[in-house]
Write a structure and sequence with these properties.
alpha/beta; Aconitase, domain 3; Aconitase, domain 4; seven-stranded mixed barrel; five-stranded parallel sheet; 31 helices; 18% strand; aconitate hydratase activity; Aconitate hydratase; lyase; 2-methylisocitrate dehydratase activity
């Protein structure tokens, strides 16, 4: 970077332990023209420091910096700024395609006559392999070893590619499989709260910031690290030195006071916060937590809340530095000098919170008395649908009517899972009062609607928090000592977020009780929450499908969208880890867990939840006993080395990757084929056909599933044609390095409902004008052969959920030119622009339904070569009878940089052309 212009005379030095750092002093900037910035939210102080440090008169100007100061008066801004995070974090599902793109960019750079060495991360990048382990084996001491062996057998090609990337690219590190979940590894080890870097011969200190290719990157906000999820394509641009173009955000202050009551957990708190903020409406905004109530929460509790920012819709959920930040950095093994630097730097910059800290200025606020939080679940299909634990059974009875009244499935994805027999005709009613049992072949028990068939302690949200994991262990201990047993139809699993978790559970003697309840270690990684729950036992799956049962899962995760956890499970509930254990004992969602017996003790007496629920004091005392700094020092001493399996992975290739032609995991994507040094003009959309009509809350899981691949689906057919056996299909998530699989999986979720094809679930559509019904992929390919453009219509919150770039990449590769929706979730809108797909929003209260659109229409959108950010354009809909209607649409290309990306055909094309031109000029 070039030396900052320092218009506000704030460049100064900070000495800590005899070491000198260059910093950009916010208090000095306030004295020198930025009046009032000490009243900014802490999160905006981080953005302000970033702009001061990168002021160059071009990408960051003095007026950009003044706009942050003006925010204090207006509490919002329409100013676009260029933000440069310090580093990038990836997990392997989203990271593999990002590295594939970088490898493809090296090939393309070479084709353009430029130096492929130019394609190299310019900031630190860490990729944590955490999304590939699946729960094939469970409930036995050997489950972990067996699952690891299967993981390496399935993912050998991907791991070879990542080992090549680790050696081929600068500033790129890989944390091997079996270490933990990327967000927990980030929290426990990678994040530093204050980052340091040598720049032009001087050592700079500044706030630790990042973007990540997983939406739950926000978890590290609990450590006062500003970070959020972006799509892989945006992360790649950040890696390659491109600033993130963003509007100065609104910041919603969330004030906490009081303390949690006895019997509640951090999970109950986060589900309450999620519901409140989703109702408030914080999409695209920062949320910052403040108030004396923060002192009643541990940093791990704060990280649990921050993790769920995607679920409440915010860009981030930020917590400032305070005394507990210092406690956490110390206990997790950070160097003492770093800890001293964090304390000194944060206090100097006015970023250190105490209970006496004056409340910052916020755009808007809401507050919560922690003492009002009650034990809760969220489900059956959205994280924000919180239900009090006392009401969970009655709420399920209401929910089952809607679930069973859903559409029949005619999608090719569902054939292997029981086909149409799994679903009732649209409008069918379920009996809310009786759940008849159905015999399971060879077993003495029956299965009914509402039975819990998966109970999983999983996901970064909770496994980073010792209080809820110790609580789960104590519930298991008390249950085991009383002689209780988990119901035999429940698939149980424990997948911690780091190896430290099993260390402390074993140290205090709780792991043996979890094992006795079936919660043996199955792997370190994001398992059930990402859809890697593995298959249910065959006889249980058969009973569910043959009898159209609404089976349930209870998981300690953050995502419970339709079709995500397991194809056999239609109702999914988020819960604290101790409640996961308790529901495994109860075995059903149809009983009130707070009042009904969990089973009989050794003397034949009923045991209730209150009998095995630990007190807050029990949990706190055991947490203090369980965890030591030495555990973190030991586990992270050689974190990039990996076990013998990782060390045995072969590395091949040089500056560019030697793409193996036989690979079905990693293939050279077609994005840059035929690309010239200058972009082609954008063409208007003329007489486009409608590929799909969707209603509200279509998630990125709906658009680009991560779970299992069905043999009869287009992706399954492709793999079979390439001699891949069904047992080796793995998952969509694991095959994200192969565009052929992923474009076939686009809009292929077994629960997606294309409203063009009424009463049907799955990725099907009608090809027009002949009206033939076929898989969406097949229709898209037929339209491409015919030279026909495509559009997609949707309702509100299109693209909610994971920061899944394949939801945009697949859309682009299917030939979709524009998505027209009532509203977009933040990351997916950005991803669409980044892939050259135009996001458009209805105006004037229009919806595709109010316009009478059925899918038989054609759509024309002129003027695309001369677009401006957020302008209104006119589209023409031509109906089947030949009549037309003009509709006004808002262009959701929000900034000038985004417009440049769109005009180049995508952000990667824009970056690649710039780097190629720089290389050619240097030559």
């Amino acid at each position: 970077m070039t030396r900052s212009l320092d218009s506000f005379k704030c460049r100064t030095e900070l000495q800590v332990d005899g070491k000198t750092y260059t910093i950009f002093d916010l208090k000095a900037a306030e004295r020198n023209g930025l009046s009032g910035v000490s009243r900014l939210p802490m999160s905006l102080k981080v953005l302000l420091e970033n702009l001061l440090r990168y002021e160059d008169g071009n990408t960051v100007t003095a007026d950009d910096i003044k706009a942050i100061a003006k925010w204090v008066e207006d509490k919002k801004s329409d100013r676009e700024i260029a933000y440069r995070p310090a580093r990038v974090l990836m997990q392997d599902f989203t990271g593999v395609p990002a590295v594939v793109d970088l490898a493809a960019m090296r090939d393309a750079t070479e084709s353009l006559g430029a130096d492929p060495k130019k394609i190299n991360p310019l900031v630190e990048v860490d990729l944590v392999i955490d999304h590939s382990v699946m729960v094939d084996h469970f409930g036995t001491p050997s489950a972990f070893k067996q699952n690891v062996e299967l993981e390496y057998a399935r993912n050998g090609e991907r791991y070879q590619f990542l080992r090549w990337g680790q050696s081929a690219f600068n500033n790129f590190r890989v944390v091997p499989p079996g270490t933990g979940i990327c967000h927990q590894v980030n929290l426990e080890y990678l994040a530093q709260t204050v980052w340091t870097r040598e720049v032009d011969g001087e050592l700079q200190a500044f706030p630790d910031t990042l973007v990540g290719t997983d939406s739950h990157t926000t978890m590290v906000n609990g450590l006062a690290v500003l970070g959020w999820g972006v799509g892989g394509i945006e992360a790649e641009a950040a890696m390659l030195g491109q600033p993130i173009s963003m509007l100065i955000p609104e910041v919603i202050g969330f004030k906490l006071h009081g303390k949690l009551p006895e019997g509640t957990t951090a999970t109950d708190l986060v589900l309450t916060v999620t519901q409140m903020l989703r109702k408030k409406g914080v999409v695209g905004k920062f949320v910052e937590f403040y108030g004396a109530g923060l002192s009643a929460l541990s940093l791990e509790d704060c990280a649990t809340i921050a993790n769920m920012a995607p679920e409440y819709g915010a860009t981030c959920g930020f917590f400032p530095v305070d005394d507990d930040t210092i406690r956490y950095l110390t206990s997790t093994g950070r160097e003492q000098h770093r800890i001293n630097l964090v304390k000194e730097y944060s206090k100097l910059q006015g970023m250190y919170r105490t209970d006496e800290t004056e409340d910052p200025v916020f755009t808007d606020t809401l507050e919560l008395d922690l003492s009002t939080v009650v034990p809760s679940l969220a489900g059956p299909k959205r994280p924000q649908d919180r239900v009090a634990l006392t009401d969970a059974a009655s709420a399920f009875k209401d929910a089952v009517v809607g679930i069973k009244g859903g559409a029949k499935s005619k999608a090719p994805e569902t054939a292997a899972a029981g086909g149409d027999a799994r679903y009732m005709a649209e409008g069918a009613q379920a009996d809310q009062s009786a759940y008849p049992g159905h015999v399971v072949e060879g077993e003495e028990y029956t299965l009914s609607d509402g039975d819990v068939v998966i109970a999983a302690i999983t996901s970064c949200t909770n496994t980073s928090n010792p209080s809820v994991l110790i609580a789960a262990g104590l519930v298991a201990k008390k249950a085991h000592e009383k002689g209780l047993k988990v119901k035999p139809w429940v698939k149980t699993s424990l997948a911690p977020g780091s190896q430290v978790v099993t260390d402390y559970l074993a140290k205090v003697g709780l792991q043996e009780h979890l094992d006795a309840m079936g919660f043996d270690l199955v792997g370190y990684g994001c398992t059930t929450c990402i859809g890697n729950s593995g298959p249910l036992p065959e006889k249980i799956s058969k009973t569910i499908n043959e009898n159209d049962l609404v089976a349930c899962s209870v998981l300690s995760g953050n995502r419970n969208f339709e079709g995500r956890v397991n194809p056999d499970v239609r109702a999914n509930y988020l819960a604290s880890p101790p409640l996961v254990v308790a529901y495994a004992l109860l075995g059903t969602m149809t009983k009130n867990i707070t009042t009904e017996s969990l089973g009989k003790d050794k003397d034949g007496n009923d045991v209730f939840l209150k009998d095995i629920w630990p007190t807050s004091q029990e949990v706190a005392e055991m947490v203090r006993t369980a965890i030591t700094r030495e555990m973190f020092d030991t586990r992270y001493a050689d974190v990039f080395k990996g076990d013998e399996n990782w060390q045995a992975v072969k590395v091949s290739g040089g500056l560019t990757y030697d793409w193996p032609l036989s690979s079905t995991y990693v293939r050279n994507p077609p994005y840059f084929e035929g690309m010239g040094m200058e972009p082609e003009p954008i063409e208007d959309i003329e007489d486009a056909r409608i590929l799909a009509l969707f209603q509200d809350s279509i998630t990125t899981d709906h658009i680009s599933p991560a779970g299992s691949i069905k043999p009869s689906s287009p992706a399954g057919t492709y793999l079979s044609e390439h001699q891949v056996g069904v047992k080796d299909f793995n998952s969509y998530g694991a095959r994200r390095g192969n565009h052929e699989v992923m474009m076939r999986g686009t809009f292929a979720n077994i629960r997606i409902k294309n409203q063009m094809v009424k009463g049907v679930e799955g990725g099907v559509t009608y090809h027009q004008p002949d009206g033939a019904e076929m898989p969406i992929y097949d229709a898209a390919m037929k339209y491409q052969d015919e030279g026909v453009d495509l559009v997609v219509f949707a309702g509100k919150e299109y693209g909610t959920g994971s920061s899944r770039d394949w939801a945009a990449k697949g859309t682009r590769l299917l030939g979709v030119k524009a998505v027209i929706a009532e509203s977009f979730e933040r990351i997916h809108r950005s991803n669409l622009v980044g892939m050259g797909v135009l996001p458009l929003v209805f105006t004037g209260g229009d919806t595709w339904e109010s316009l009478g659109i059925t899918g038989k229409e054609q759509v024309s959108i002129p003027g695309l070569a001369d677009l401006k950010p957020r302008q209104t354009i006119t589209a023409t809909v031509t109906y089947e009878d030949g009549s037309t209607k003009d509709i006004e649409l808002l262009v959701r290309i929000d900034t000038a940089d985004e417009l440049a990306y769109y005009n180049n055909g995508g952000i990667l094309h824009y970056v690649l052309r710039g780097l190629a031109k720089d290389s050619a000029a240097a030559a």
